[in-house]
Amino acid sequence: MSAQREAAPPLARSPRPPHRLAAGSWAPEVTVAMESAEDWLVESLRLYQDFHAFDLSAATRGLEWIGDKGVFVAGYESLKKNEILHLILPPRLSVKENQGLFPERDFKVCHGGFSDRAVLELKHVPDTRLLVTSGLPGCYLRVWRVAEDSDVIKAISTIAVQDEAGGLWPRLAVFSSAPRVLHGARLSSLQVLDPESGETTYSSGISDSEELSSLQVLDGDTFAFCCASGRLGLVDTRQPWAPLESPGQSPGSGGQRWCAEVRAGGSGPGPCFSSLGADGQLRLLDARDLCHPMSSVQCAVSMPSPSPELLRVTWAPGLDNCLAISGFDGTVQVYDVTSWEGVGSQVEPLFTHRGHIFLEEGEGHAAALVTTHTWHPSKPRTLLSAASDASVHVWDWVDPRAAC
C-alpha cells in the first residue's frame, strides 16, 4: 500500500474524460458530471488553503496520527496480505506558514510491515513505538513494534480475546497516561489490557451482549462507549461497572446504526456527545443527561449510509463547536453546531470536501466512499480523509465566514 505519485495542488490532476456511449453520442449525465468536476477544480482554488491528493496501493480504514507530521495507515482487504505503513507528511504540510516551494511533495514511507489479516482498527500507543490492531478473520488483537534501527514494523504478539460470532471485531481506544488499550466487540467483552504483557487490568464483568460501534478514552480513568443501537455511556475504571448511560435503545434511534464521539473540552460546562445515525441524524447530548438530547438535527446527506460501519463523526480539536462527518458518500462535511437548537431541524454544512468524488480516474470507476477521516492534531482546519478507491487527501479548508 505504498504511497505513490502526489496529485496536488487541486488543478494538478485532470478530471477523467466523459464516457463515450457510441460514435458521435455522449452520455448527458456524464457530461454534466464532467462540467461539475471542472467547476469544482476551478472553485477549489478558493475553497482550500492547501490540498494534496495521494494514492495508496490499497484502501485504508485507519488514519492514526503520530505527532503532527506522521500517520499510520493499514489495508483492510480480505484474503491477502495488507501493508501497515508509517508515513511522514510532505514538508510543506509540516510548516506553520507558507514558505514557498519544497522539493519533496509526497508522503515519505518511514516504516512498513505486513498483516495477514484485514486491519479494521489501528491505534498507536502514545509515548511508545507500539501499535495495536484488530480485524478479521477471527477475534484478536495484534501488537506491533516500530523498529528504531530499521524501517520495519514487526508483529510481536497476538492476543486472543473473547470469541465473537457474526463477523465482529474489537473496537479499540488507548490511554495516554499509561500504555493501556481499551478493547471490546460487545459490552460484555470490554477490557483494558497492557499491550506488552497482555495482562488485563479492567473488565466490564457483565453479560450484556450489545454490540459496540465506537470507544473513546477521555482521561486516565474514564472512557466513553457507543453501541450500534445508539446507546451511550461513560465508565470510570476506578469503580466496578456502573456507567452513566442512556437506558436501552436511545430515543429516536429507529433501529439504525450509530457512532459517537465526545468533545471533552470546548466552551460547554462538561463533556458533550455527538451521536451520528446512518440516516444522517445527528444528536448533541450533555454527558450529565444522556436521556434527553440538547439538539437533534438532520444533516444534509444525499442518502442513508450504504456501509454504516464506516460512519464517523469527529470534533475539531482546534476549533470551538465544529465537527466533521463521513461515511455516506465520497464527501466529508464540516458543521458548526453553535446555533443548533431543538429537534428535527435541517442543517447545512459549513464546508464540504468533494475531492474524492471529482478526482476519481478511469471509465467505469465505482463511486468512491469515504472510509475514514481525522483532524490534524495542531492545524485547526487541516484534515486527512481516505476513500474506498485507495485515495488519501490532505486538505486545509477555508472558512467561508472567515472565522469559525
Write the layout of secondary structure elements.
Blueprint: E1 20-22, E2 25-26, H1 28-47, E3 48-55, E4 64-66, E5 70-74, E6 82-88, E7 108-115, E8 118-124, E9 130-136, E10 140-146, E11 153-160, E12 171-175, E13 180-184, E14 191-193, E15 200-203, E16 212-217, E17 222-227, E18 232-236, E19 244-245, E20 258-263, E21 272-277, E22 281-286, E23 295-298, E24 312-315, E25 322-326, E26 332-336, E27 342-346, E28 351-353, H2 355-358, E29 370-375, E30 382-387, E31 391-397
Parallel strand pairs: 23-27
Antiparallel strand pairs: 1-2, 3-31, 4-5, 5-6, 6-7, 8-9, 9-10, 10-11, 12-13, 13-14, 14-15, 16-17, 17-18, 18-19, 20-21, 21-22, 22-23, 24-25, 25-26, 26-28, 29-30, 30-31
Number of strands: 31
Estimate the mean pLDDT confidence: 84
Number of helices: 2
Instruction: Please list the strands of the largest sheet in the order they lie side by side.
Output: 20-21-22-23-27
- Low-pLDDT parts are 2-34, 99-104
Distance between the termini: 36 Å
- The percentage of residues in β strands lies in 35-45%
Helix content: under 10%
Largest sheet: 5 strands, mixed
Q: What would you report as the Rg, rounded to the nearest angstrom?
A: 21 Å
What overall geometry do the principal axes of the alpha carbons give? Answer: globular
Structural class by helix and strand composition: mainly beta
